[in-house]
Structure formats: C-alpha cells, structure tokens
Amino acid sequence: MVSALEVHTEVDVKRLTVVAATAAMVAATLATPAQAEPAAAGSAAPAEYVVLYREGAAAADAQKAIEAAGGSVIKVNTEVGLATVSTTNAGFAGALQSSAAVEAVARNQSIGSAPDDAKASAAARKAVARAAKNHTVEKEGRGGPARTWGRNVKDEPLADLQWDMKQIHADQAHRFEQGDKGVLVGILDTGVDGSHPDIAPNFDRRLSRNFTVDLPEDADGTEIDGPCESDPDGSCTDPNDVDENGHGTHVASSIAAPINKLGISGVAPKVTIVNLRAGQDSGYFFLQPTVDALTYAGNIGVDVVNMSYYVDPWLFNCADNPADSPEEQAQQRLYVAATQRAIDYAHAHGVTVVSAAGNEAIDYTKTNVDTASPDFAGFPGQAARSRTVPPSCVSLPSESEHVISVSSTGVSKRKAYYSSFGDGYIDVASPGGDVYDTPGNTRDITKATLSAYPKALAVANGEIDANGDPTVDYVVKDCKGAACGYYQYLQGTSMASPRAAGVAALIVSRYGKRDRAHGGLTLNPDTVEAIIKGTATGTACPNPPAFTYTRILPTGSTVTATHTCEGGRSDNGFYGRGIVDALRAVGH
C-alpha cells in the first residue's frame, strides 16, 4: 500500500519507466480491415471491437457491414465515424475486409490513464475510488501531521500558497480580465465534483456529461473500477457532477475556481466549467468516451478543453512496430486515426485543445524504450513488455495535430524533474509543481500545486478526522461560514496543462466575438494558440544545456538524472515558446 505521504509527493512511474535507445523511423500508415486480423470461421466468447468508418461513407452502410459480419453496434459516433461493437465471431475483422464503408477495425481497449502526477499507484487509486463509493474510510498507510495556515489575504484566503499563479502573473491579470461566463471550458478527465463550494458557482450541470461506464474488471479479470454499487439502476454510469478519483476536480479548480473569499482562485475565475467526463474512476480512458467528449464539445460551443492524460493502453502508438502483434499494430493505427479525427472535428468547431506533455522524464523526439505498454488487458493474456519506440511513434493526444502540448515548471521556473520534453514537441510551459525544486533538493510539499479536492475522497482516504480537519500535510481546509472546501497538493504535467488552458480561456474572454450559434463567446483556436505562444515568456535552456536533477528522497537516498535541452531562447525542448503569461496574454 502506498502511503498517503508518498502518494502526494512522488511521481509514480508505474507505466512511465522509459530509457533512451537508438532510433529507426517507422512509416505511419493506417491498417485496412484485412491487415487488422485475418478472417476466421466459427464463434468465440463475446468480444468488443472498435470500427472506424471510411471518411465519406454512409453510416448506414458501415453498420450493415458490421451486422453482416456478426457484430452488434453498442455505440456510434457519427461525427467521427467510430463504432464500438460486440461480437462472438472470431473472424469479425476479416469479415469486414471487403466493405468499402469501413477503414479500420481493432480489438477494443482503454486508450488513456491520467498521468500519476505525484498521486497513487493504480491500486491505491482504485482503493480510494471504491472506498468513496462505499462511504468507508481507507486508513491503511496514512500518516503525517496536519498543517494549519495563517492567512495573508489578497485575492483569496489561500492565495499566498499559489506560487503558480504568481509565476504566470495570473493574479495581476485578474485586475484586467477574470474571464467571461460565456466562455466554456471542458474538463476531459475523471469527472468534476460539482458540489465543491469552490467549483459550484462556475459549474454548468446542465451541459455536463459523463461519457463513461464503470468497468468492473479487465479481460484477465483484474479489477479496474470495481463493482457498480453506487448506481442503483445497474447501468454502471455515475452522475455528471461527481469525481471518484480526484484528478478531474483538481484540474477544473486550477482553471476556474471563482474568487469568492473561499480557498483559492483559478486562472480564469469567471469562466464556466463543463464536465466532459471521459475517464474511468480508476483513471483509464477509453476510445469511444474520448471521441464522444471531443465531438460533444464542438457541438455545444465549448471554447477550450483540457486533456491531462495520455492515450492508453499504449504510451506510444506505433504504425508497424515489430515488437507488436499485427492485432496490436492495428489497434494503434486505429486509435491514432480516430483520435485525430475527433480533435480535427473539435478544432473545426472552435475548440482549443490543451494537453499535458507527460511525466515520463524523457525526450519525445528521440527513440525510447517503453516498458509499460500495453497497460490494460483489452483481450486475454495481453500484458506490458519492453519495446523500442522510434520518434515516429506518437503519444495521444499530446502529439496530435491542433493540440497545445504543455511541459511543467517548478517554483524556480526550472523544468520539473518528471516532465517530458523535446524540441518541436513542447509548445509552451506552465507551472505544475516540483517538490524537489528546493535549495537542498529535499522534498517540500508546498512546491507542488494546490487545487480543489472532493471531500468524499478525503473521508474515504482517511485524510480528514471526525471533525473534518486534515490529518495530513498535503490536504488543506478553508471555510467561509458553514461552507468548507478541501484542497490537495499535486504535481505533474496534468497540473501544468490546466493552468495553460486557463490562460487560453482568458484569451477567448478578452478577444472573443459573440458566438451566434451557441451564445457566449468564440475565438478561432489557431488565434488562441498564436496568442498564448506569442505572449509566453521566452525562457532559455539551462547553461550548460545538459541539466542534472538531484533528488534526496525521504529515505535519505539520492537520485540523479540528466536531461538535455535543445533549441534557442525563443523555442526549445524544455519550454517551447516559453512559460505562459496570463497578464501579457490579456494585453498588459
């Protein structure tokens, strides 16, 4: 069991252990159904597939082909042309090879897991989520003194703890622009606690959606989300205003916690939060919910979405890596194509897409060794293994087109020790925390970032006592009369990305035009990207560019790692075009 202190101060690299290796380029071609899996006769146990329709094909023709091959459509996204299908036909993919309406088909499995961001291992996250559903308290492995804070009130009671806001001058920007309620920010994550008192004023429950269905276990019987006990109708679908993981609530608060004399402020404290839940309680993200969330965002006039996760089960998706089976290669090609179609759709409908760069501490523009993929058993016997991945392999969504990829900085403005990087990969940098960014290289939890935390999870995790007071130093409580909010310290590129998304929301608020189709405001995503990059503070590579990180762990052991920054002051692999600046972004 990971202790609570470890959970909130160390970046867990359970799926992200990668080392540099030598390179070879791979062609990124999309599989045809015939390449995906040879035709086979007979029946098998029920299995799920994802089917990507050929662009321009009629959905009715594709669905007829699916049915003729022995498949039943569970769900379909007609905007992208992606269907989730159930079948007992062992030769289902091969049977679709002659259909002119189908472009690709692959066995279905998870495409995402929220980066661990100094949080728990998968097992610990699942235990917390299950405990929250059961309203029980998980006490094992807890510890650490509670911390109380004296108030130095400026904007908000806990503003003096928000070094991140000061780094990007968001506190100063609020004198000129705090956001417009007509600007919608979609949170593609594990959900949002819409009842949190420092989120509720800006939360739009009517527009929010949950695109996920809880998954009890994977194909090998390993528990994922656990039983659906919180859902009395048996549909395994949670309400659209809950977060049984905590990750999405932290992200939402970072963007748009209101200035209301309670707790903290978000970067854009007057914009509207829309929960577009695409992640499981356990932190995994499936293809269909992600695609559905993106197209829904475009359809309802969302202006900015934040995607603080990478696309599982593959940290890197390769077109024809010899380390993968033909079936796995087909999966990866389909996921890349379907995800890009959904992002293209959102972008064409006015959505600015912002994504976390990843916590693997590697250069994405080099060849790496991925030892953690696939991290979800989509079909029996599938397991992680070591495989060499050249730069042509892509991580989703951060390496997709029309996506702003964000690296993470610490309090000193250095690139965080865990943040992935790469010249030509990183677009901008933003504060996400680095608990070892201290004079002695020892851990200081206050050098992570502070944002909202669902009370139900704090209770389930044993982090507050019977009086409602924190029992650990990474959880902070603040009250305004009878209303009390809880906040937790987390670090990761998942925390950097929403702060950049908040700046994007301020840009739309400042320069956007009236949206005749949906009301509110709108601004071309390319314009938003140009402004956020053009107003970022150019930050040069370290001198020398090979920077060695030293961390003295709580155990007393010392860990070092060297990352090399390539590029010039105006554009490089650590900071991209620079650290985002809210004040400059709104014209001051």
UniProtKB/TrEMBL annotation:
Keyword annotations of the record: Hydrolase, Protease, Serine protease, Signal
Ranges of compositional bias, category Acidic residues: 216-232
All residue ranges annotated as the Peptidase S8/S53 domain in the record: 180-537
Record flagged with keyword Metal-binding: no
Superkingdom field: Bacteria
Signal peptide as annotated in the record: 1-36
One Pfam family per UniProt: Peptidase_S8
Location of the active site: 189, 247, 494
Disordered as annotated region, ranges: 216-248
Gene3D superfamilies registered for this protein in UniProt: Peptidase S8/S53 domain (3.40.50.200)
Keyword Hydrolase: yes
Family to which this protein belongs: Belongs to the peptidase S8 family.
Protein name in the entry: S8 family serine peptidase
